[in-house]
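To: structure desk
From: M.T.
Subject: fold request, one chain
Message: Could you run this one when you get a chance? Sequence is below, nothing fancy, just the single chain.
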Amino acid sequence: MPLLSSSRRTLAALAAVLSFGLLAGCAEDAQPAVDTSSSSAADPTPTREASEASEDIPSPSDSDDTDEAGEGDEGRAGSAATGTASAMLAELTVKGRAPKTGYDGDLFKWRADTDHNGCDTRNDVLRRDLTTITLKAGTHGCIVLAGTLDDPYAGETYDFDRSANAVDIDHVVARSNAWQTGAFKFDDETLKEFGNDPLNLLAVSSSLNRQKGDGDAATWLPPNKSFRCEYVARQIAVKHKYELWVVPAEKAAMERVLAKCDDQPAFAEDVDWPGPGDGDNVTTKEETRPAKQKSSSSGSSSSSSPGSSSSGTTSGSSSSSGSSSYFENCTAAREAGAAPVHRGDPGYGSHLDRDGDGVGCE
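Reply: Done. Structure tokens follow.
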């Protein structure tokens, strides 16, 4: 029995030694797998999934490009670029038209010498807008007798002659339109400034000026399509300067025009008149009139023009200029084809010449 017990203890010891060896071997076989796994996680070579993910992350330069592209897209789809007519239009108030109650074109004192250069506004416009100008001698370089107009509204050229009436001065934003979009609140000085502002005045063909009337961009645009962008930009600048509003249809029409203009720049709000005697290719001469006109206004009571006495457009009383008769009003003068009418001409009367420059019904 003692020998058997000893043998059992010996076998148990051998089993323990064998078990320990087997466990150690297993541990040594598993260790390389752990090390390999650790090394793989630290490997700088990315897996395919990691590589694809990294391509979606922009580099610093790519990020800058993306920001710039984003801003560009926002500018095209959102608000207009700074400094454009569209941006200026966006600043104008939009609301309905006010009533015309109390409106009178004379409130704007059109033709007043607001810049105190010694010349009335009409002649300032003519000296600025005409080319090859002839000035009347003895008028301190003010009165324009003749010139050439490149009419922006028609896209055509006209010869201006003071004795004819082919050229008018247009208020780009008509006085009546201004009155109904805020000018009714102006004081006298602001009305006068608006009526004589070089920003708001252009020499144009009389036929188109009269066709336009007091229309806004929704009801009238220049036939010369290449000028429409500048025309609308100028209207916007005038309304912006004087804090006038636009009506919904007017704004919509302006937006349609500007959509074709490729970022039409805002029109400068500060423009000046030329000085007396200034202009394009200026010459000066004495004013001459046709001999027939001189003889018909000789003042003889028996030499009145039969046409003027029988047409019904003139009054039978004498005018202060010595003519035997005068037109009752400018409508009569225009219907007779005599406007503008000069001092000394048949039909002239001081009541037709509001500014006293010797020319009535201009």
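Reply (cont.): Residues 108 and 192 are 5 Å apart (CA to CA). Let me know if you need anything else for the meeting.
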